[in-house]
Structure formats: C-alpha cells, structure tokens
Amino acid sequence: MNKPARTYIFLISILFFSVFGCNDSANRNNDEEPDILKSPSFVTINDSIRQFPRNAALYLQRAKMLSQNNANDIAYKDYKKSWELNPTRETGLLYASNLSIVGKLAQKLDLLQDCLQKFPSDPEFSRMIGETYIESGKTGAAMELYDNFLKKDSLNFEAWYEKGLLLEQLKDTVHAIAAFKKAYSIQPVNTYALELAHLYAETRNSTALKICDEVIKKDSTGQLIDPFFIKGIFYSNTKQYKAAIIEFDSCIQRDWKFTEAYIEKGICFFKQDNYDVAMNTFHMATTVSNTDPDGYYWMGRCYEVIHKKEEAIAYYERAVALDKNFIEAKNALKRLKG
To answer: Could you tell me if 223 and 254 are in contact, meaning their C-beta atoms sit under 8 angstroms apart?
Structure first.
C-alpha cells in the first residue's frame, strides 16, 4: 500500500470516530438528568421509575415533587408522561395548571378539551377552559362559553361569577354587577358577596356597606379583612375620609402587614392636605413591603406637592424600578425632569 492510500485511510478513521464520538457525547448530554433529579430527595422515586417505567402514579408523584421545588419545566415532562399512561382527573387538573405556568396555553386548551370529553360532568374543566381563553386574550370565546353554560343552566352560579369577573376585566361594570348579583343570589358565599360589594364601593353605591356588614356579622372567627377594606374604599370614594381611616385601621389591626390598607389610609390623609401624616403612613407601607411600588409613588406625590423636587424624583424612580409599567410614576418623572 502506498503512502497516500495509508494517509487516506487514516483520515477516514479519524472522521469516523469524530462523528460517532460527537454523536455519542451529544446523546449522553441529552440523556443526562437535570441537576435537581440528582438530589438525594429524588433518589428513591427515580429508582422506582427506572424499575416501573409504565407506572403513571410514579411520574405524577415526581412531577408534584418537582412543582414543589419550582422546577416546572422539568415537571412538565412527568405530567405529560403520567397523563399519556393513565389520564385521570387529578393528573388532568395538575397537568393543566403546569401548562399554564410554563406558558403552553394552546396545549393547555387541547388538554382541557380532552378532559371535558373524558369527564363531562366535572365543571372544573369547563371553568379552566374559560380561564385559559382569558389568559390567551380570547375574551370573546370565554364570554361565549359562559353564555352557553347559562343557556343550558341559568342557575349555574359559577358561570355567573366567572362571567362577572370577565365583565369586570372588560370594564363593563354595570353588567359585571348584574352577573355578581345573580351568582350571589343563587349561592350566597363570601367570595361572591365581596366581589359584588367591591364594585358597589367603586361606583359609590352604599349597598356595599350593607353587604360588607352582612359578611362581618356571619364571620365567627373575627379574622376577615376584606369587608372592612371595601367599606374603607366606599367611604374614601365618597370623601368620608375619617370613616374610611377607621375602616383601614381595622384592617391593619387584623393584619399589620396589609400594605394596601396603609396605602389607602395614606391617600385619605393626602386628599385632606395632611401631607406629613400621609408621608408617615406611606413610609409605613414601604416598611411593611419594600417591593410595593405604590408606597414609593405616593411618597413622591407628597414630596412633589410640598415642592421638594429632588426627593420626589428619587421616589418616583424607585417606583418605576419596581414596576417598569407604572405609567403614573413615569409621567411624574417626565413632568419633573421637563
């Protein structure tokens, strides 16, 4: 064999081992387990899955463990495998929730439609379909879904409630109130009562107070906060600031970490031109929660109104840093920076 031939064979050999060596390395990388699955807490379940690879319950168990550790992208594969092996109601619900978290909304809709066929008498899947339409920006499809439910059963209180939430999101307050009233009349639970009361408070309708008082009266634990907060909103919207502050203080007494109560209380002082007390109240809000942009925004408002421009700018900038879409704070910065 001459030298050129030997060289040619040698080069072919190198190419062969390089290609197959790379492929083998790539396969090992693809098959390699994520770091979280190598942790001690997953050893037992991993071994069980390797021993019983067709056991849907094992994949579901591991998916739950992964979800608890916020490893949702990895959990997705196990939910999917469990569903393919044994499509149970529980797996469907958990898998759908996971798909929402990982942003696979089209796949979630397909799954829920499948669940609806497998479990036609279960209203939870219908409700989740409506929620997913809304998540996907398909509000028209969601409204059509709720209307179809109500054509079939006008006493479907869950459909009335979900429709009310959608109408509220669409800023159709009048029809949202009507939907919540219907849901509450059929099923008088606190959730429906407080949604209705909240809209009444925002529209300055004193019926809000009546509903909240009914809820408070039935609260045997004495721990509910929302009805007091909603009453405060009503009083604030109707410029009854002293009464509003009393209600917001009631919220704070029940939960001193309730940031929204400090904010609304501070706004009451601000609207009464009591800027020092307002500022102290907003400062408390930022102390309770230093990641809530509203407290910093209102601190900026206080400094701006007393003509301390630099301090105002600093607080507006802090609000925008925490919420890039805080339009009011951005506009304030444009105003002050000229």
So the answer is: yes
> How many CA atoms, within 13 angstroms, populate the side-chain half-sphere of residue 211?
28
Question: Quick check: 121 and 156 in contact, CB under 8 A?
Answer: no
Spatial CB neighbours of 251, under 8 Å, sequence gap ≥ 6: 225, 228, 229, 232, 258, 261
Cα 47 to Cα 37, 42, 52, 73, 78: the distances in Å are 11, 9, 9, 21, 15
Name residues whose C-beta falls within 8 Å of residue 160's C-beta, 6 or more positions apart in sequence.
Answer: 150, 179, 180, 182, 183, 186
pLDDT at 32: 67
Check pLDDT > 70 for residue 60. Answer: yes
d(CA 308, CA 276): 13
Sign of CA dihedral 21, 24, 30, 32: negative
Average pLDDT score over the chain:
90
How far are the Cα atoms of 43, 133, 199, 314 from residue 160, in angstroms, in the given order?
A: 47, 16, 15, 45
Contacts of residue 149, Cβ cutoff 8 Å, sequence gap at least 6: 126, 156, 159
Take residue 67 and report the two structure tokens written for it. Answer: 């979800």
Contact 207, 195 (CB under 8 A): no
What size, in residues, is the chain? 338
Spatial distance between the Cα atoms of 15 and 17, rounded to a whole number of angstroms: 6
Q: Which residues 6+ apart lie within 8 Å of 290 measured at CB? A: none
- CA dist 155 and 136 (Å) reads 27
DSSP code at position 139: H
Do residues 214 and 188 touch, judged by C-beta distance below 8 A? no
Tally: H helices and E strands in the chain: 19, 0
pLDDT for the residue 21: 44
Please tell me the distance from the alpha carbon of residue 242 to that of residue 272, in angstroms, as a whole number.
10
